[in-house]
Amino acid sequence: MAYAWKRDKNQKLLATKTLISLLVLSIIFLSSLFFFTSSSLQNSNTNLSINTQFPIPPFDCFKCPQSKPIIANVVENLKYPFVYSLADLGNLPEKPHKNIMRLLKGKPFRKPDISATIQEVLEKMRINGKDGFFLDVGANVGMASFAAAAMGFKVLAFEPVFENLQRICDGIWFNRVASLVTVFEAAASDRNGDITFHKLVGRLDNSAVSEVGARLAFKSNKEIAVQVKSIPLDELISPSQAILLIKIDVQGWEYHVLKGAKKLLSRKPAEAPYLIYEEDERLLKASNSSSKEIRDFLKSLGYSKCSQHGTDAHCSKE
């Protein structure tokens, strides 16, 4: 999924005063968390309105160690704005993340394309009287999850990278959406068990099951192999759960995710979820699949209407 922004012009190195300002901002964010009692945090995590039994336990943000430093801000130019927290800060102090520079200039974070897309699709569904869950597979730091939750939709988010899970927990608290967002520390796939996952240090959004896929864009970054839990969506989603939309951004592992959701995707057209998935041929090839293989699989399940939007494919049943 393309989370790319245009580079700000005339970007300069961080001066000492700028670094101090950044440190102060981080301290303010961290300090603010301690003004809320642990009981209020516990209540926000245990009183979920989703009321669904899952075969694996959801990730417990209350027991998760606090991420630090926290660099968070509101997103610009969205009908339903939200706050999210950065996991990758860039190379400090020489080359910080461009959103850090925006923050120091008093600007909001730049709008991720996927956030706007999710809200546009869900808004159309709401107008048509539809309601149900949004599945965010490869949630990263929650830019799609919070876009949906800001609209009041319930979200099931899947993210295997612990550092990203910490930032999702930040966002759940900042946006007050614990009653809407349930997170799983797992990689959705076509089999149940454990798989090797490759984290890319400094570019966690490019982490992948495929080692080749993880390093395609950032060959100089350090890669760390870890074991993560995998689960098919069909084992997690009951037949009675209404699923409106599934977004999949898993760096080439999309076909495996879709195969693990065959029952879900086989629902009749009025109940089948709308799909948004990354269709990057290089990444798919690194995971021994292809866009044609995915399209043929989806067509066999009745997904006859697919269109390309940049590197993303949008598919639905007629």
Automatic annotation (TrEMBL):
Domain Methyltransferase FkbM: 136-304
Keyword Aminoacyl-tRNA synthetase assigned: no
Pfam (any one): Methyltransf_21
Listed transmembrane segments: 20-41
Entry-linked InterPro entries: FkbM_mtfrase, SAM-dependent_MTase, SAM-dependent_MTases_sf
Source species of the chain: Eutrema salsugineum (Saltwater cress)
The protein, known as: Methyltransferase FkbM domain-containing protein
This protein's UniProt keywords: Membrane, Transmembrane, Transmembrane helix
PANTHER family, alphabetized: EXPRESSED PROTEIN (PTHR34203:SF13), METHYLTRANSFERASE, FKBM FAMILY PROTEIN (PTHR34203)
